């Protein structure tokens, strides 16, 4: 049920992203599809006795995209796995799943028929190595002086190195095992990290994961975004205090989407929990402007705004590329006097009077 619910949410956001992307393309294509001729300045007096109020145009370097779902996760292979060196009938964890532990912390107690046998095997392997090494050292001089046969020396050497490799293998596994005076065996963390316990079955078998350790710095947010939007992506916003920096983008495209990985930006206060599902807002790079919606009007299938220029109104063609609250985001193909529109005053009242005047001019 939870998976079905999350799948529906993800599907909803994906559809919204596609619609958002397609709307941008449509707006761009619409603005290019219709030809228009520059409109001469219009005197402010054309508005008659109606009020002329203005809003300041602001420069915008980024805009918010459609929200998406992110999953707090790690990349494949980033986990450090501790596997069981023997079959276990019972395992009891002493730490909470997902908790941050230090090196040497006791993670779990284990019980089973083969647990005590493993320690006996380790002790015997240590003794066998000592005997093999003594035999190897004792016959080394004889081999150098050709006193013993070559085949005999090869057999002695093989026995020694096999015993050495077997002991080193068991000794490595002993680094995360501890047995107290009562014979109780516990699993010890070989390094610091976030512990992730495995729940594969009630009876744990040799070689199966007992727990994983995850470096906190390896935790990232995994997000799927439309390929169309990724090239202009600046960063991701989770909250006012949490911003994510894009670390990598996977080169595989699936259903017009690509997977990207992001982590908290320097100075951000992000409290991310492994496995958590969060909502992120893509922040797209944008070289344009923002103006109050009431400043925009349509004339002959194109969008315009009127800029105050001394005692006149300069009519500027604009391309609308998004909106937020009571403002439109736009670019302009005809900047006023080839300069930036930043700080210019756009007419926001009596716009319908101006629009009517333009329609009358067109009728003439």
Describe this structure in words.
Among the domains are: 108 residues, conserved putative lor/sdh protein from methanococcus maripaludis s2 fold; 135 residues, no CATH class. Helices cover 29% and strands 37% of the residues. A 6-stranded antiparallel beta barrel has the order 4-13-16-15-14-17. It has a 4-stranded antiparallel β-sheet with strand order 5-12-11-7, with no helix packed on it. The chain has a 4-stranded antiparallel β-sheet with strand order 6-8-10-9. It starts with a helix and ends with a helix. The protein is built from 5 helices and 22 strands. It has 364 residues and is an alpha+beta fold. α2 runs antiparallel to α3. The longest helix has 32 residues.
List the helices and strands and how they pair.
Layout: H1 2-33, E1 42-43, E2 54-56, E3 58-64, E4 68-73, E5 80-83, E6 90-93, E7 100-101, E8 106-111, H2 113-144, H3 150-174, E9 177-179, E10 185-188, E11 193-197, E12 209-214, E13 220-226, H4 227-230, E14 233-239, E15 242-254, E16 257-264, E17 277-292, E18 297-299, E19 302-309, E20 312-324, E21 327-332, E22 345-347, H5 351-363
Antiparallel strand pairs: 1-20, 2-22, 3-17, 4-13, 4-17, 5-12, 6-8, 7-11, 8-10, 9-10, 11-12, 13-16, 14-15, 14-17, 15-16, 17-21, 18-19, 19-20, 20-21
